[in-house]
Structure formats: C-alpha cells, structure tokens
Amino acid sequence: MEILQHLFDGFLIAFQPLNLGLVVLGVVVGLFIGAMPGLGSVNGVAILVPMTFLVPPTSAIIFLAAIYYGAMYGGAISSIMLGIPGASTAVATTFDGRPLALKGLADKALLAAAVASFFGGTLSVILFTGFAPPLASVALSFGDPEIFALMLLAFATFVGLSGDDIPKTIFSIAIGLVLSTVGFDFITGEPRLLLFNLDGFLNQINFLVLAIGIYGIGEMLWTIEVSRGNSTMSKAVITVNRMLGNVKELLGTWKIAVSSSFLGYFVGILPAAGATPGALMAYGVAKMTSKNADNFGKGEVAGVVAPEAANNAASTGSMLPMLTLGIPGSPTTAILLGAMVIWGITPGPTLFVDEPELVWGLTASLYVANLFALLANVFMIPLFLWVLRMPFTILAPVIFALSVIGGYAATQRLFDVWLMLVFGVVGYLMRKLDYPLAPAVLAIVLGPIAEPKLRQSLMISDGDFSIFVTRPISGTITVIAIILILMPLFKLIRDRMRGGSDRAA
Fold first, then answer.
1. Which whole number is the average pLDDT over 438-460?
2. For the residues of 427-493, what is the DSSP string, one character each?
3. What is the pLDDT of residue 160?
4. What is the DSSP letter of 89?
5. Which of 79, 102, 415, 104 is nearest to 214 (CA)?
6. pTM of the full structure
7. Is it the case that residue 231 has pLDDT exceeding 60?
8. pLDDT surpasses 80 at 429
9. How far apart are CA 233 and CA 208, in angstroms?
10. Which secondary-structure segment (H or E) carries 85?
11. Looking at the DSSP assignment, which residues form a beta bridge with residue 191?
12. Range of the domain at 472
C-alpha cells in the first residue's frame, strides 16, 4: 500500500500542467528523433539536455525520459518503412518488419510495433514500480562469467534453432565477431585487425554504421534488383477492417510479448547491456519457441512484437541501476545520470529517501509517456504509410541520403561513411547468396560485451574454463547454450535414424 501511495503522489506530480506538457512534447520529439537514422535516443537526449536548464530538475528528468521513450517507439518506423534502423535498438525489428512492409502489410507491422512497445513499456514500468530492490540485487549477482554465459546463450539460439543453413549461420556469426574485435585490445592496448593499415580502423567499428549500411544501403540495392523498375515500393492501405483484423492477430502473440518484455527488462537492468542485446535476444528466443520459426525473416508479425516489446522494457529496466545504484544501464541512461549530477542530484540507494518527488514523479510519468506514445503511433500510421506510396525513384535517393547522414551523425567521421557504403555492398551480397544477416548483427553487438567478460572471467580463474559451469547461474545458462548448439547434430542423427528405419521397412 505504501508503494501505491507513493505512485499516487507521483501521478499528481506527472499531471501538473508543466510536466504533462513536457511529457507530450518529449514523446513527439523522441518519436521523430528515433525515426531519423543515426540519431537515436542517445544523441537526442544529449543534444536536448541544455534545454532542460530552463525548468526544475524533476520536470527536466521527466522531459528527457519522455524523449527516451518516444525514441524507443520511433526507431521502429524507419526500420519498417525504409529498412533503415532508426537506432541500434530497432535493428531486430527490421528482420520481419521490412518484409511485412514490402508485402503491403506495413500497417500491420507498425501497429504490432506500437502495441508491443506499449505492452513491454507498461509491464516493465509495473515491474520497476513494485520490484525494484529485489531485481537490483539479482542484477548485482551477475558477475563476468554469468554475463558471458548469457551472451553465449544468445548466439546459441541462432545456431541451434535457426531455420537457416547452419554453416552459413555460423559463418555469419564468425564474421560479426571478427568485426567486433577491430580496434585497440582493451587489456594490452595493442591495435588489432588494422585492415590495409588504415588509421580509421583504430577506432572500433561503430555498430550503427554497420547496421545502416547493411539494412539501409544493402536493402536499397536489393530492392532495386528485385523490383526491376517497379514504380512503387508497395500498396499498403489502412481501413477499419484491416486494423481490427490486425488487432485480432496481435492478440495471438501475447505470450511472446510477455516473455520478450521480461527478458528485455532483465537484460536492461544489467549494467552496460542496454536495449539492443535485449531486443536481439528476444527475437532469437521468439524464433526458438515459435511454431512458425521458418517464417521468421520473411514477414512474421511475432518477429516485430518480440524485439519491440523487449527494447521498450529494457529502456525502463536500464533506469533501475541508474536510480538505485548510480550505475547507468545503457548509454542513454548514462546521459541522464550526467544530467542529474549537473543538477546536484546524487543517484544511488538514498535517492528514494532524499528525492521521492523526483523518483515517483518520474515513475508515474513513464506510464503517461507510454500511453501517449501508443496513441501518437497509432494515429500517425496513415502518415507513415504515405511514405510507402512514394515512387521508388524518389524513395531510393531519400534512403541513400538518410543513410549517409545517419552514418556520419553516428561518429562524425567521413571514414565511417565509406565503411557504411562497403557494408551496404556486403549486405547486398549476403542477401543475394542467402547468408543470414541477423547473426552477424548480433555478433557485432554482443562481441564487445562478450570478449571482455570472457577474458576477465579467465583472469579470475587463472585460465580455467570450468568457472563457467561451476557457478550455479552461469553453469545453468552455459549448459542450456551447449544443448542448443548441439541441437542441429541431434536433429541430423534423428533424421538419419528415421531414414534408416524407413528404408528397412
């Protein structure tokens, strides 16, 4: 009851005219920031921090959090409409959202993204409200071996339960892992994989540059080839009957939405994990548990629901370690943490006692921001669909221009623009040769997280790999991952045994 009283007080703060107006403004601004390739919540929040000095600290935090929420929703828009991830958190949405749009079902994909985002955001805020202390303690119990085991499990879901060619999937993961090691070794400080001795490779390959190249430039090249002069991208329309039918279909994905929300929230509360790994892992788990696993990557609505529910849940989850421990759970919450310090607010265990107005006002504002973001997304679907009605002769240059701008905005290095163009050609060739793109994207995201955890774990155990199986949590996760990796072998043996018995019969 005490929590409900605090939450009620928080709603009184959130519904103050200034704060409510800032929530609405923040969601709208965040929606368009998320939809613009290369910007995303990190850049959007960082750019707008100076504007918040005009309002009280509580109102400022509410405004920045609303931008964060809006950007989580907005990232799906360009992923679905143009095939360009608005942010790294929306890359997994491209896997099935873009094929749906190309089939003329963009309204279904957009509605699925909006509803799943709302569901994941709402569930995560409820978890944040009621279970913050115990969930924070669970996150703290995850050491280096546990986090590496979790990363291994993410790879295993793609290898063991992929409907794609297993050797090609493993090759795709290997390429992603190699690209993730470009730059300086984090322990020795020595440069690694300086291709052609280009100084630009001294910096780690930016994930968003790769994602925009593969899914922006690569998708554009692929569409040009398959369309062969067709004047429009698709003929998506929106009617009341179609919307009602889409809602009925979405009701059948509630289990995936629930599991993805829990997974995303849990990954979000792990320091330095963020929403991108959560979304990719949720996509893998959804594919693993779906009866229609073969349809993933071809336009499966569950492939949109899973990552969108997960990345919005993770965005709320990442605020938990920031507020309770003073440890940012994502790059965006790191910006929020810095802003709070500027205002003289010290995040940590005493924050709930010292600044209850800020904590509970922020918590209540997340409910409001989540609802308004859903309404804004649903009512703006006709506007988004208008983009698809543009002739591709106009849309292709727009995609190219947005990709170049987004690739440059991510790092502000011209070298990365050229690198993005190379990745675009590579992405086009991988699609042409039937190599899955998702495992490579997963690897380059999780590689920089997995490698330090692996090496630090081995340093702790003096090189003994048993540390991953002797600890209870990491051991359980590692065993599950090994079973998933070996599953293709089990299937092969089973199929051969069945074939032998059929021949004998």
1. 82
2. HHHHHHTT--SHHHHHHHHHHHHHHHHHHHHHHHTTT-TTHHHHSHHHHHHHHHHHHHHHHHHHHHH
3. 62
4. G
5. 79
6. 0.72
7. no
8. yes
9. 24
10. none
11. 184
12. 2-504
